[in-house]
Amino acid sequence: MLTLGLSLPPSPAPRGAYRSVTVMNGLAYVSGQVSRTADGIITGPVDSRTPARTIRNAAEACVMRALAALEGEVGLDAIGQIVFVRGFVFARAGFADHSRILDAASELIVAILGSAGEHARSAVGVSGLPGDGLLELEVVAAVGTLN
């Protein structure tokens, strides 16, 4: 992470009646992390004119918040594999390139965790997210060594 010039933000606190991370049967389920930074929420909706830098920044914010949540609950050293990532993209009607938005998040996860970051994924277009966030990520991670 440091070689990428990145550091984890504080572990996100839940903003409602839920846990940031729940661990069960060797899997850590990270609640949805919206594209929130120390400066506020990177907002959508996204369309074909949204700058690539904005998309990358939103993806980075979500990924770093999800990793911070994992660090706070189990520690990143305990993660054997990122199993699944589901991304919700706040997009204008007619936008169809949701997968490209998630590529920025997937690439960053792999850049940080190496092969332990390789994961299955879904990209879902939505008509709104909390705080008008551009992106929200849910992450499922295997805790412990892989068989």
TrEMBL record:
Top-rank taxon, per record: Bacteria
Pfam families xrefs: Ribonuc_L-PSP
Protein name: Enamine deaminase RidA, house cleaning of reactive enamine intermediates, YjgF/YER057c/UK114 family
Native source species: Sphingomonas guangdongensis
InterPro entries cross-referenced by the UniProt entry: Endoribo_LPSP/chorism_mut-like (IPR013813), RutC-like_sf (IPR035959), YjgF/YER057c/UK114 (IPR006175)
